[in-house]
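Chapter review: from sequence to fold.
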Amino acid sequence: MSEIKNIAVLTSGGDAPGMNAAIRAVVRAGIYYDLTVTGVLRGYEGLICGDFIPMDRKSVANIIQRGGTILKTARSDNFRTVEGRQKAYDHLISNGIDALVVIGGDGTFTGANLFTKEHNFPVIGLPGTIDNDLAGTDFTIGYDTAINTVVNAIDKIRDTAESHDRLFIVEVMGRDSGLIALRSGIGVGAEAIMIPEANMGVEGLAKRLEYGRKDKASKIIIVAEGDEIGGAFNVGEVLKDRFPNYDIRVSVLGHIQRGGKPSCMDRVLASRFGVSAVEGLLNGHSGEMVGQVNREILFTPFDHAIKHIDAEEVTPAWLKLVEILSL
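The C-alpha cell string follows.
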C-alpha cells in the first residue's frame, strides 16, 4: 500500500500548450485517490523558495483550454547546484509532501533525475515541450499545437509570397531538433526543409532551388533554429548572393509557436499523462517519465528519456518524402 498522501506538481522550462490540461489531470487524479495536491509556482525556483499553493477542484476549473501554465514557469540556475536541490528537498519535507510531478522537457528531467537520485524522493515527469525531442514517447505535450500553429502561420505567409512572387525563408523553433520543421514543412508544401539531423547545407539548398519548378510563383523554405547554417537570416544572406534574381524575405515565427489554445490531441494526451503520473507514483514508479508509445502508456527512466529522440527519428524515408513532394 502506497504511503503517498500529498503530491506536488510544477511546470518548468519553456511553456507548452497543454500544460494546464496536465496540471488539471494531476490535481483531479490526486483528489480521486484521496490525496492532497500542492502546486509549486515558478518551477524549480519556486521549489527552492517554498512558493507553494494548495490545489483543489476549483483551482483547476476552466483551464483545460488555456495555453501557458497557471503555475508559471522559470529556469533555475540555483537548482543546478547541490545546495539548491537540498533547499528544495527541505521545503518538500517541511510541507509534508511525499512525491513530486514535474512537467517539462529535457532540462526539467535532467534536474529531476539528479534530485531523485540524491534524495531518494519519488518523482514522475510529464513530457511538456513543443520540440518533441524526448525518448520514450511518440509525442510530447504541446508538439501537435505548435506544428499546427506553424502551418497556420505559413499558410498566411504563402498568400503574400504568391502575391509578390517572393521566396520566403521561415525559421521555426526546435532547438537541436528538426521535428517541428519537418512535419510543418511537409504540411505546407515547402520547397526545402533545413534541419540539423539532415545537414542539407548551402549546396544542397541551392541544388533544390535550381532544379525546382521555375514557373512557381512563390517558394517557401523552412529552417529549424538549430540548423548548421545558423538560422533563417544567415540562409537569406547566402541565397541573396547566390540567387540575386529572387525577391527574398525572412520571417522568424518565434514564441507564437508556444502560445495559443492547445489542440484536442494535446488536451487528451496531457490528461492521460497526468492521471498516469499519479497512478504511477501510487504504484511505486519514480525517476521516470510518462510517455505514450503505439497508444500505450509507458514509463521511461529519466536517464533514457533525456538522451533524445527515439520518438520520431528523422529517417531516410522522411527525407525522401520531403524530396519527392518538393518537386
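Two observations follow directly from the output. The first helix runs from residue 19 to 32. DSSP finds eleven helices and eleven strands in the chain.
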